[in-house]
Amino acid sequence: MSRFLSAAAALVLFALSFYTAQKSYVAIIGLRKYEERSERAAKHSETAARELHKSRATQASSAAAIVLTLASSLAIFSSVLLGWPSASTSAYVLPPLNIAATVAAFVHNQNFWKAKAKVPFVGGFNEAIEKSKEIRQLMVPLALGWGLVGLLDWIDGSLGLG
Q1: How far apart are CA 130 and CA 124, in angstroms?
Q2: pLDDT band at 18 (very low <50, low <70, confident <90, very high)
Q3: What is this structure's pTM?
Q4: Which of 16, 48, 108, 157 suits 41 as a labelling partner, its CA being 20 to 30 A distant?
Q5: What is the pLDDT at residue 73?
Q6: Rounded alpha-carbon distances, angstroms, from residue 49 to 53, 78, 100
Q7: Quick one: 110 exposed, middle or buried, by C-beta within 10 A (0-12, 13-18, 19+)?
C-alpha cells in the first residue's frame, strides 16, 4: 500500500516540479532581457558584476533542483509502476537528495532575492523578481513532498508493507 502511495506522491511531485519549471523558465527569460545591460554595467562596476553572477547562480541552482525533482519523481513513479527491484534503493536515496537540493536552492535564492527591491519603470525585471519569489515558495512543498515520499518508503521498508 505504501508503495502505491509513494508512486502517487511522486506523480504529484512531478506535476508540481513541472509547474515550478514553467515558472523558472518565465523568470529566466524575464531576467535575460536585462542581461545585455547588466553585462555592460558589469564591465564598469565590480558590484554590478557580482550581482549579475549571483543572479545567474540563483537561477541555476533553482533550475538544477527542479530538474532533479522532475527526474527523481519520474524515476520513482516508473520504478514502482513497473515493479523494478531498484525501486527500494532509489526510494531511500532520492528523497534525502531532493530535500537537500530544494532546501539549498531555497536558501540560496532567499539570501539573494529577499533584499532586492523592485525597480520603477522596469516591469519585466520586477516580474522576474516576483517569479523568483514564487519559485522559492514552491520549493517548500517540494521539499515537504520529498519528506513524505521518504517517510512512506521508510514505512514500506521497515514494516514490510509493500
Answers
A1: 10
A2: very high
A3: 0.82
A4: 108
A5: 92
A6: 6, 43, 28
A7: middle
